[in-house]
TrEMBL record:
It is a multi-pass membrane protein. GO terms for cellular component: endoplasmic reticulum membrane. Its main location: endoplasmic reticulum. SUPFAM superfamilies: P-loop containing nucleoside triphosphate hydrolases. It comes from Maudiozyma barnettii. CDD domains: GBP. This is Similar to Saccharomyces cerevisiae YOR165W SEY1 GTPase with a role in ER morphology. InterPro entries: G_GB1_RHD3_dom (IPR030386), P-loop_NTPase (IPR027417), RHD3/Sey1 (IPR008803), Sey1/RHD3-like_3HB (IPR046758). It is found in: Endoplasmic reticulum membrane. GO terms for molecular function: GTP binding; GTPase activity.
Length: 817
């Protein structure tokens, strides 16, 4: 009959979906691809399966009806089984009264199932049962092929086949009829059982055959052992029944062909609603690419005798496929994501970044929606959320990176804004808070740009905000710490200047109340430096606020620290200054001031030793009194000075180190005391000695009687000089010369001239003597042997000469000096 098909319509080749060994073909995707030519037909396809006894003309009918190419038996050769396993063929060409229809969207897949009751399988009904289960699981319409003469007669095999179909159907759908979690579609799923009565000669009308068959089917249904959940169900809850009669293919070939075309009309004419066989409720609602996986899974479950749960299978397929689509989408749109995004982050180009992210999101969700929305809605939506979450995660990373860069910039600008802010009316903390507020607003504006485009979720915003706040707080604390450091160092500098300048001057010239003066100066200086931070607390106690936004406790710690620094500086200054030598110097000064000078600072001229001794006693007492004051720091009311701040209060661990201020008052220890006193005594003893000596020098003079004696004894000599004109002239010349030399301070050159003249004279005399001695020696050497005594004499002379020379040099030195 294939000659009835127009020659230009290519025959559709079939593929063995499940072979005789019950193995599922792995070539299905390739087959689909070949016969569809890459078309995406989504859910616009139908699946028909055909059941019936072996050699009942199934393949022949399918080939005629759908222009397929299933193997058929050649009756002239042998009556045997031709279809083995389950074959699948695709067609778009349905043979109808309007010709071969190839309507768009009418892709049909036909499963030609191995005939039942085949002699080849003997009593093994396992395959028949599994094939029925499979056909029901995957197809919309099941054609049941029957010879007319089989109807009404009890044909065990035919009835057996129908019984099998009903049973497996119940096993698939019966248990789900009360399941609340099963998809609504699966619960409503129905299948069309299309009974095709072959060799219908027309003696018995089709209606009569139909009712016979219907009552037979109802009887079989009634006798089935049904699950508890479908005890009251009828055959029509699960199946639609249709009956078609086909004339005898050989005896009434034309009528047979006409009947086939009529049947073809019902498979292709969508307009004819009543007769159209593909009803939506028969469809499994799976896209074709999912169907191949679904059918394989079903066969796998059936073949391995597992409980075939179709809704679960459909969900599994949907899950697998939507996962696959989601991953494909992510791969497609995020493969080069990092390299595309990086430059925009580096450029800090917010607008371009937002534009790119929006475009990626729209395109990727679009792709997913197109491909995945065809699968179970619930799974599609579940995975859509997953996809969005993955996209968001990726975006969050990017946006976080981008925003982190911006927030770093913003926060870095904080320090700059703070240093350039010249508002002198506000405190440091007020300015800091004001600028921080401004930065936070800018940060929120920035985030809202991403939020407007739905690129960032609330969770991420909260996270970013938290990070920003943390970061800002950290920076604020850093800036506060810097400010505190600056306050401390400024205080330290000023305090140091004040202490160094004044305290040393107090100590250098100490009085009995030196420590009162030191302490009152110390307190005054500290108050002056801290007055700008002073506040008054509720109980009108003095408290301090360093205007950096610290708690009262922290402010108190800073205050204690400043006090500690002040005390430390005072301690260092006092202890460094009052070293042994300095103290001796101070005592000596004190002593000297009292001993040597009167109240008008005029040096005292000693008259007698008693005066010296008294003055010495008083001065020494005064000095020792001051020494007592310097040894230990006490106020005049005899209270030892103890710093009012303890190391542990400030817990400093800075360059100041830990210093035991408790020892502040103890300036000079016992050993030092002894040493100082010893030195001091020695020095003042010398002073008193000097004083006494100076008194002797001034009082020791030549007695008058000595002058009288000189006049008496030297009278003649004076007279001789006065009477001799030469001598008097020489004397006058000498006196005048001496006067001028003295007046012009020429004693030096005169002495030099005299010295050099003496030196010259001496060397001339020595040369003369040496020459004379050498000549004498040479004469004596030639005539006689020189006696050892003479040698000794020579040596002696030499020594004498050398001594003389040395004397001359010494004299020269003395003169020069
Ligand atoms: N009498 C009659 N013979 C038919 C009809 N259709 C097909 N045949 C013949 O029946 C024989 C078997 O036909 P197939 O189409 O191979 O039968 P089948 O059911 O596919 O056989 P298996 O695949 O082996 O189960 C062939 O010789 C056909 O020519 C029909 O309508 N009436």
């Amino acid at each position: 009959m294939s000659e009835e098909i127009p020659a230009d319509t290519a025959k559709n080749m079939a593929v063995q979906l499940i072979n005789e060994d019950k193995e599922f073909s792995q070539g299905l995707p390739v087959y689909f691809n070949n016969c569809l030519g890459g078309r995406d037909i989504d859910q616009n396809y139908h699946v028909i399966s055909v059941f019936g006894s072996q050699s009942s003309g199934k393949s022949t009918l399918l080939n005629l009806l759908f222009n397929t190419n299933f193997d058929t038996m050649d009756a002239h050769e042998k009556r045997q089984q031709t279809t083995k396993g389950i074959w699948l063929s695709h067609t778009q060409a349905v043979n109808t009264n309007r010709g071969v229809r190839s309507d768009p969207g009418s892709d049909i897949f036909i499963l030609d199932v191995e005939g039942s009751d085949g002699a080849e399988r003997g009593e093994d009904q396992d395959f028949e049962r599994k094939a029925a289960l499979f056909a029901i699981a995957v197809s919309e319409v099941m054609i049941i092929n029957l010879w007319e003469q089989q109807i009404g007669l009890y044909q065990g095999n035919n009835m057996g086949l129908l019984k099998t179909v009903f049973e497996v159907n119940l096993s698939l759908f019966g248990k789900n009829s009360k399941r609340s979690d099963a998809s609504s579609h699966s619960q409503k799923h129905k299948m069309l059982l299309l009974f095709v009565i072959r060799d219908h000669i027309g003696v018995t009308p089709l209606e009569s055959l139909s009712s016979t068959l219907t009552s037979e089917l109802e009887n079989i249904w009634k006798d089935l052992s049904k699950p508890a959940s479908c005890q009251d169900s009828t055959i029509y809850d699960f199946f639609d029944l249709k009956f078609v009669g086909l004339s005898h293919k050989i005896l009434r070939a034309d009528k047979f062909l006409e009947d086939v075309k009529n049947l073809g009309d019902n498979f292709s004419n969508k307009e004819n609603n009543d007769e159209y066989l593909f009803k939506p409720e028969f469809h499994h609602m799976l896209p074709l690419d999912g169907w191949s996986m679904y059918s394989e899974n079903c066969w796998d479950q059936i073949e391995n005798n597992k409980d075939l749960d179709l809704p679960t299978q459909q969900i599994l397929v949907a899950r697998f496929k939507t996962d696959e689509i989601m991953n494909e989408t992510l791969t497609k749109y995020f493969e080069n994501y990092d390299s595309n995004i990086k430059p925009l982050i580096l450029e800090n180009n917010k607008d371009a970044l937002i534009e790119m992210l929006v475009s990626i999101k729209v395109q990727s969700t679009g792709m997913y929606d197109d491909l995945a929305s065809r699968y179970t809605k619930q799974i599609y939506l579940e995975n859509r959320i997953k996809l969005l979450s993955k996209i968001n995660d990726k975006f969050q990373e990017t946006i976080e990176l981008f925003i982190q860069g911006t927030s770093t910039e913003l926060i870095d600008s904080l320090k700059k804004s703070l240093s350039t802010n010249d508002d002198e009316t506000s405190s440091f903390n007020e300015i800091l808070i004001e600028i921080s507020k401004d930065i936070t607003t800018r940060f929120h504006e920035f985030i809202s740009n991403f939020k407007e485009k739905d690129l960032i979720n609330e969770e991420s915003i909260a996270e970013l905000n938290a990070k920003f706040t943390k970061f800002l707080n950290k920076k604020q604390n850093e800036l506060r710490a810097i400010q505190v450091k600056s306050i401390i160092s400024q205080f330290k500098k000023n305090m140091n200047f004040a202490i160094k300048d004044n305290v040393i001057s107090y100590l250098a010239n100490p009085s009995d109340d030196v420590w009162d003066r030191v302490m009152s100066f110390f307190k005054r200086s500290m108050d002056e430096l801290l007055i700008k931070f002073e506040t008054t607390s509720d109980n009108s106690m003095k408290t301090y606020d360093f205007q950096v936004g610290f708690t009262p406790e922290l402010n108190d710690t800073i205050y204690k620290r400043l006090r500690y620094i002040a005390w430390y500086l005072l301690n260092v200054t006092v202890h460094d200054y009052l070293k042994e030598d300095a103290v001796i110097g101070i005592l000596r000064e004190k002593f000297e001031n009292s001993f040597r000078y009167d109240e008008n600072d005029t040096p005292i001229l000693w008259k007698d030793e008693n005066q010296i001794d008294n003055a010495f006693k008083i001065a020494k007492e005064q000095a020792l009194n001051i020494f007592g004051v310097l040894c230990i720091a006490k106020t005049t009311d005899n209270t030892e000075i103890i710093p009012d701040v303890r190391v542990e209060d400030v817990e400093v661990e800075d360059d100041l180190g830990i210093y035991h201020l408790e020892r502040f008052a103890h300036i000079i220890n016992e050993i030092q005391k002894e040493k100082i006193l010893r030195q001091f005594r020695r020095q003042i003893n010398l002073s008193v000695l000097d004083a006494k000596r100076s008194m002797i020098t001034t009082t020791t003079h030549i007695p008058i009687w000595v002058y009288a004696l000189i006049v008496v004894l030297g009278w003649n000599e004076f007279m001789m000089i006065l009477r001799n004109p030469l001598l008097i002239t020489l004397l006058l010349l000498g006196v005048v010369g001496a006067y001028f030399v003295n007046k012009f301070d020429l004693w030096g050159p005169v002495l030099n001239v005299v010295n050099s003249a003496i030196g010259e004279t001496r060397s001339t005399i020595k040369d003369k003597l040496r020459t004379f001695v050498l000549e004498e020696g040479e004469l004596n050497q030639s005539n006689r042997k020189q006696a050892p005594d003479e040698y000794e004499m020579n040596d002696f002379k030499k020594e004498q000469e050398e001594e003389e020379e040395e004397k001359v040099i010494d004299e020269k030195k003395d003169i020069n000096e």
